[in-house]
Amino acid sequence: MSQDALSAASAQEQLLELHGALRDARTVGELLARACALVRRECGFSRSVILGISGEHLTADGIDPLEDPASDLLRRTVLASPIPLRGWNEESVLLRGEAQRARRTEARSVVAEALRLKRYVLAPLVPESAPVALLVVDRTDPVDEAAAAEVRRFAAMTAIALEQAVLRARMGEITAELRFLSGSVLGLVGEMADTPIAIPSQGRHGPVFSALAPNAAPGLRDPGGDELLTPREHEVAQLLTQGRSNRQIAEELHLSPDTVKGNVAAIMRKLDASNRAAAAARYIAATRPEGG
What we know:
Layout: H1 3-23, H2 28-43, E1 47-54, E2 57-59, H3 69-80, E3 83-84, H4 90-95, H5 99-104, H6 110-115, E4 119-125, E5 133-139, H7 145-194, H8 231-240, H9 246-253, H10 257-270, H11 276-287
Antiparallel strand pairs: 1-2, 1-5, 2-3, 4-5
Helix pairs in contact: 1-2, 1-7, 2-7, 8-10, 9-10
């Protein structure tokens, strides 16, 4: 194998190793922090930071603290004072995808001014079709085009890892919601099948499922003598008195969080309670056995 082929194979192996290190990050913030450490080590720079794009500002909100103190000082500086992108500057040209123009332009760099950079490289992270962040590196030695090209390649690799991390997070959220939805459907089917049918009392409309719960408490009946809460609302109220959150109640009863939120709102309204704690207290008082 020729020397060029060996060099290419070595470079490819190095890229795969770097991508694996980024892919193993547990969160996006950790991934960005790892990328900052790796670009310093692999591309030969003394400081590095990744700044997110938020409207017309560069911010450091989404990145974890950096292990290198000098780099973390850059992060904390931008965290305290986001950098505005308004007007004509090197960053706005670069983030519009005009890399060649950015290298030729005489426009000032707002990042270099804010962070007092001397010999630096800026490279956008573009995971899909639009840039979401800017990789910033600097050092005391001069930066040639080969070093700048290495930083841009590293930024492209980081963007791919970032896209994969965000997609994994989205899939996890969707999977969790689907589990809640499927559990909610099963719970509703069970409620429809198990709740006894009764003729609604005069003046009542809607479904003909009985509103009478087993062992109904006298303190939870309306003026007409009917049970104030539905069987499902009794179940939710009982868990409410145990200090459970909506999410915990949803998991316990196989309902969606939105369904539980609606049940809690109905309980508060029917018990004339202004908050969850008051509703729980009134439910306990109304269902307490006589002499208890």
